[in-house]
Amino acid sequence: MTRSLIRTAALCILLSVVLAHNGAHAQVGDNASRPVRVLYGFSPGSDIAARFITETIAERTGQPTVFENVAGAAGNIAADQLARAEPNGHTLGILTGANIVLRPLLHQSVPYEPLKALIPISLLWRFPALLVVGPETKAKDFSELIERARRAPGELTFAHLGAGSVTHLTGELLKITADIDIRGVPYRSVSALISDIISGRVDMAFIPPSTAIPLANQGQVRALATTSGSRSPSTPNLPTIAEMGYPGFEVAIWFGAFAPANTPQPVVNRIGTLLRDILATPKVRERLLQLGIEPIGGTQAEFMQTILDEKKLWSNLVEKAGIKPIE
């Protein structure tokens, strides 16, 4: 065999190894030809980031990928479906803290222990809530709102998405931290909540930046503060509650990727690597930041620590606020 043929053969072998290596890292599940289902526990309209990540997975892997809105019970129906799915990496869930942390903490009866039935893969993104009021609410800023609440205990109301939701617990955290009495009003949908904020039927609510920023730009609501630990790049002129005199006040809503229990660790590792690569891409990061969302993409161990930290935060709040378990 000539040297030229030897070099050509060596290059072909090297190329095949590289392609196989890249394909292994890009593949989702244990069969590259099988479709991937991505379950998301909320209705269309709140799923822009989740759909974008799912579409990017399909682009990277070339696998058929199906995005499913499995709305209801604050995402718990999607979590239930994921827990029952075959553990082969072909069904993933984009879930949030309500499904993993709050459900066992606040409900008397749950069908399973989330961290035993589900495997955390990677924290995908997080975002603070923005405290918004209606355009007619008589408080020009956060300090004035708190002062008004102190002058009239029990008069002001805050809208939330049901007992035990993050929007509810954030309001309870504000009550304890600022030593005020404001009344929670539950809603079944974001659209109904927003409508009543705009009309003035309720005074305030904690809502995501992706919803709050466009409404504020249109003059339909006024944003007074953010629950982030430091000022958010998407709202640099908006003060944090922490800097307004309540140090340590920080709430972030997060979404992460999960797989059913017993999914093989090599499959979990491969999916985690793919997601971290996707979230490190400038195009993806820019798109998420435009939505007021901070892309994360950390390791499995870092994600687990986030979950444990949140458990501690909400457990302490539930005890201090005397919140009773939901039947």
Number of helices in the DSSP assignment: 12
Low-confidence stretches: 3-25
| SSE topology string | HEHEHEHHEEHEHEHEHEEHHEH
Shape: globular
CATH evolutionary superfamily of the largest domain: Bordetella uptake gene, domain 1
Overall pLDDT confidence: 89
Largest sheet: 6 strands, mixed
Query: Number of folding domains?
Result: 2
Cα-atom radius of gyration: 22 Å
Q: Ends: how far apart?
A: 78 Å
- CATH architecture term of the largest domain: 3-Layer(aba) Sandwich
Proportion of residues in helical segments: 40-55%
What's the arrangement of strands in the largest beta sheet? 2-1-3-10-4-11
Which CATH class of the largest domain is shown?
Answer: Alpha Beta
Percent of residues in beta strands: 15-25%
Strand pairing plus helix content: what structural class? alpha/beta
Number of strands: 11
